[in-house]
Specification:
CATH class of one domain: Mainly Beta
Number of strands: 9
Strand content: 35-45%
Largest sheet: 7 strands, antiparallel
CATH architecture of one domain: Roll
Structural class: alpha+beta
Number of helices: 1
């Protein structure tokens, strides 16, 4: 599934989301971004957050200490360039799936 991805602090005034791909299900879930694989099997917490520009995104904290931000885009074909907005229902579904992954891992410990 196509997502837009950012790793770092929400306080960064120059947040730039980049194209990435959410792959796999359950324990094999991961993000492919710039030839890197970000494993999601170690999700510590996940939720919806609003950034300074009022964009609702998924905030994913990993047990490694990394924090990633992502959302699922909805693309509308445009004349010169496509228009891309946040697909909030799809982003919320990703949050629920990652929350279930974190919960199932906690239950196994």
């Amino acid at each position: 599934m196509r997502i837009l991805y950012y790793e770092g602090s929400e306080d960064d005034p120059n947040i730039q989301f980049i194209d990435a791909s959410l792959e796999g299900l359950g324990e094999s879930a991961h993000i492919e971004v710039n030839s890197e694989r970000v494993e999601l099997s170690e999700v510590e917490s996940v939720g919806i957050s609003s950034l300074a520009d009022m964009r609702s995104v998924a905030r994913v904290a990993l047990t490694s200490g990394r924090t990633i931000w992502l959302y699922v885009p909805r693309v509308f074909p445009g004349g010169i360039t496509d228009v891309m907005i946040n697909n909030i229902p799809a982003t919320e579904r990703v949050v629920r799936q990652l929350d279930e992954l974190a919960g199932s891992r906690d239950g196994a410990e």
